[in-house]
Amino acid sequence: MRKFHEKPNLYLGQISIKVTNIEKSLAFYQKIIGFQIMAQNEREVTLSADGVTPLLTIVQPNEVHPKENRTTGLYHFALLLPTRADLASFLRHAVDKKITIGASDHLVSEAIYLDDPDGNGIEVYCDRPASDWIWTNGEVEMTTNPLDSESLFAENDAGWNGLPKNTTMGHIHLHVADLEETENFYVSGLGYKVVSHYPGALFVSTGGYHHHVGLNIWKGTGIPAPDENSVGLNWYTIVFANEGVRKETVKNLKNIGTQVVKYQDHYMTTDPSGNKIQLVV
Fold first, then answer.
1. For strand 168-175 and strand 213-216, is the pairing parallel, antiparallel, or unpaired?
2. Mean pLDDT of 100-120
3. What pLDDT does 140 receive?
4. What's the rounded Cα separation, in Å, for the pair 42 and 231?
5. Domain 2-238, what fold?
6. Nearest Cα to 235, choosing from 83, 80, 44?
7. Following DSSP, what letter does each residue of 173-184 receive, concatenated?
8. Domain segments of the chain as ranges
9. Please, which domain of life does this record's source organism belong to (predicted)?
10. What is the pLDDT of residues 150-195, one digit of tens each?
11. Residue 241 half-sphere exposure, CB side, CA atoms within 13 Å?
12. Given its phi and psi angles, is residue 206 left (phi above 0), alpha (psi -120 to 50 degrees) or beta?
């Protein structure tokens, strides 16, 4: 399944989120989720599953304040585990630690949901084989059914030893203000394809994945972006196959009226709902 999260697909790299207490958050992400520290200073920690590839950065801004309600931004980021056995170990670990969780069967995947200490949403999931996904007229069938936890527990009785090294950032799901302009940005601008329409939401991907980005208006339409110092999404990265594809994407974004800023090794843009995106190769 890792093929959906490597070139030439348009896949996610690193995600950066804002927290109120870096020490408290770091303890959670190490002990509960099972990340390794890659780099650390007083107000920022970069985390990895394999010690080499950065997946998550947690940042404590100056004058940070708690998560705002009814704003755009992060719904959850999703860590894709290599196997169903790994998900079974994580579920047993979460239960043992008495963590409040949700659990769903989405047909294409099985997922466990939880929040970090600041309410940043996290999904830990495993995919079903792509050959089992059902496609109709270019859209993949997804739903939300209860997770069969008994079947999952029967998969594996091993303990949780932290995130497996092959863990990837499977997808991100965002609150947005308007689905129509959001679809235009992600499809006409970034080059994704819509693979599922869901009540109040749409899902986009490349390479035939069930989704690399989820986008919803479940908090309402026309909602504002959060304050710069609010807990929540800082930015996330989209990885391009090569410089040529990235330059073409920058051109497409500018053609639909989106501002793109060039930095030393990446471009930065913002979707219509204020979600910041780094474009990297």
1. parallel
2. 97
3. 97
4. 17
5. 2,3-Dihydroxybiphenyl 1,2-Dioxygenase; domain 1 (3.10.180)
6. 44
7. EEE-S-HHHHHI
8. 2-238
9. Bacteria
10. 999 999 888 899 999 999 999 999 999 999 999 999 999 999 999 9
11. 14
12. beta
